[in-house]
Amino acid sequence: MNEGAVIEYGSHYELIAKGGTYYNLFNSQQLQQNNEVGEIIVQSEGEIIEEHKYESTSSILTNIKNDYEYTTWELIKKILRISQPEILVILIGLFVSIVNGCIYPIFTVIFSNILQSFTKIDNELKRDAKIWSLMFLVIAVGTLICNFIQGTAFGYSGEKLILRVRSATFASILRQNISFFDEEKHTTGVLTSELALNATYLNGLAGATLSTLLQLCFTVFGGLILALIVGWKFALVCMSCIPVIIGSGILRIKMLNGFQQKTKKAYESSAQFACESTKNIRTVAALTHEEDRLRIYYNMLDEPMHQGFKIAFLISIIFAVAQSVIFLTNALAFWYSSRLIIVGEYDIRKMFTVFVAVIFGSMSAGRAFAFAPDIAKARTAAASIISLIEGVPTIDTWSNTDLDIKPGQYAALVGPSGCGKTTIISLIKRFYDITNGKVEIDGIDISALNENVIFGCRPGQQATQEDVENACREANIHDFIIALPDGYDTHVGGKGMQLSGGQKQRIAIARALIRNSRILLLDEATSALDSGSEKAVQKALDIAAKGRTTLAITHRLSTIKHVDVIFVIKDGKVHEQGTHQELLLRKGIYYTMMQEQ
Q: What confidence category does residue 30 fall into, taking pLDDT thresholds of 50, 70 and 90?
């Protein structure tokens, strides 16, 4: 086909016999076997790229040190450290939370005095009613002010925390080595979840949740202290339900923490699966695998769902027991208080002061543990985010190898898949750091070079239209671009959807050329292209390689027969080195690879 029309058809041999377009495409893929050895010129201007011998034979791996189990208190301290710029706002919020927590014990005193006032008559009752009604008004105004300040302070600091954590998480992701993303637990779906959800969950250990918990704690302790001061005998009886409530709450949090840890991996895997399915929806639709993908996704979530049912059942039992104990305690408290009132040891005001203080305290304790799901999510999210932010990658060494590329040389790396070709490129790009050996450019270790120098980009570089057009001419794409309706201003869709593979490749080459770098690294630049596009791209690469030190990786040996030096890589080592003709004469690995093509 050419330009959307069928120009030839037939079997392979029929089309070869015609000597037309198919014949020309077929010939362009054939290797010329020439037994003549050309002259080898070795420049002595110094080494451009040199990889010295490494001591270890282990493969490159990145292991983030995130196995440490943080305690909840450690996580809170780390979160507060991240929120340090808003520390004044947080302190104001904490102080107001304490004041807000003391309102209920004060209300208890007022309420018990109101009940006592109902035993009075006429003027005394009217006078007490005015006084205590005014006190309720004061409490209402105080509650309004405290809750407003508390909500504003922790809402502001919480949003700032989420913004700062998301920024720090994204910055941490960007600075990780490439091998970091090779791990299953660091896939796109998982990392996206870290940014989108986990940062928000942190409010369970900070922000409004923390302020509410602090308020409830002071309500509990304030009420208990008041009850013990007013009447310790009756207070101890009323307080018998609180250990049960606190114990059930702690058990609930531990169970939810365990549930979150167990299901986290399943949810991350399902998120990655959904991300991959959506990203490759064209392939899924073409193979009519929608139902299969949905079934797999359902099965991935099935186990967490059943675990959730089990946890919900157990937690419901614990919660039911805790709530029933409160009413059993009330029954015991009223029975015991009647005995104290009969003997004259307590009056109505004293009894209700103790009873209401303890009851409000126990209710507040129950409300505090209602935040258990949020705390469990927040703890898991905080541990994951802190590990990611503070994680330092450690790099193991690679296998023994020694490469030397001279200035201006066009070198190629060939070998079977998985032999280490791309790893060499990654080392030169400093995607990985090494612990033994060196990677040098002009005798300078690349770890001492600024990244902008390695990438060949001048800081603040602004390319002119002339620079763009010159780069496109060198990349053999200029004529195609100016033939478009709007020339260089033509929109070609997201990810260049309206361009062919060869056109995308040549535009990518133009982007590399506009930097005017001295070193050009090519990794399968002509892969997945038809013969016509391959020839156009290869022509652009040959032009781009002039005057530059070029290192190319390829499986198509026909594209590198003209290069200055070819390195044959196998099992992470250089087994053969030389020009195309020299390697053919040796009849070794390169010769065998050529015969297979």
A: low
Does residue 179 carry a pLDDT above 80?
A: no
Q: Alpha-carbon distance 428 to 417, whole Å?
A: 19
Q: Which two three-digit tokens encode residue 528?
A: 């997945």
Interatomic CA distance for residues 501 and 503, integer angstroms: 5
Helices (runs of H) and strands (runs of E) counted in the chain:
23, 11
Average pLDDT over residues 232-255: 82
Task: Tell me: pLDDT of 145 over 90.
Answer: yes
Q: What angle do CA 291, 294, 300 make, to 5 degrees?
A: 145
Q: Can you give the pTM of this predicted structure?
A: 0.51
How far is Cα 568 from Cα 55, in angstroms, rounded to an integer? 20
Domain range 64-394, CATH architecture: Up-down Bundle (1.20)
- The overall average pLDDT reported for the chain is 76
Share in percent of the chain as helix, strand, coil (round to 5): 65, 5, 25
| CATH no. of 31-55+401-461+516-596 | 3.40.50.300
Decide if 419 contacts 394 (C-beta within 8 A).
no
pLDDT at 148 (0 to 100) = 92
Burial 36-72 (b: 16+ CB within 10 A, else e): eeeeeeeeeeeebbbbeebeeeeebebebeeeeebee
Extract the tokens encoding 231.
């009447």
Overall average pLDDT of the 167-191 stretch:
75
Question: What does the domain layout of the chain look like in residue ranges?
Answer: 31-55+401-461+516-596, 64-394, 466-514
- The burial class, CB within 10 Å (0-12 / 13-18 / 19+), for 359 is buried
DSSP assignment of 96-160, as one string? Answer: HHHHHHTHHHHHHHHHHHHHHHTTS-HHHHHHHHHHHHHHHHHHHHHHHHHHHHHHHHHHHHHHH
pLDDT in tens, 446-490: 766 544 333 434 555 667 788 888 888 877 788 888 888 888 888
Gyration radius of the chain's alpha carbons: 37
In eight-state DSSP terms, residue 53 is P
Instruction: Measure the CA–CA gap between 141 and 148, rounded to whole angstroms.
Output: 11
Q: Which residue type occupies 197?
A: L
Give pLDDT tens digits for 290-329. Answer: 888 888 888 888 888 888 888 888 888 887 887 788 788 8
Distance CA 156, CA 530 (A): 57
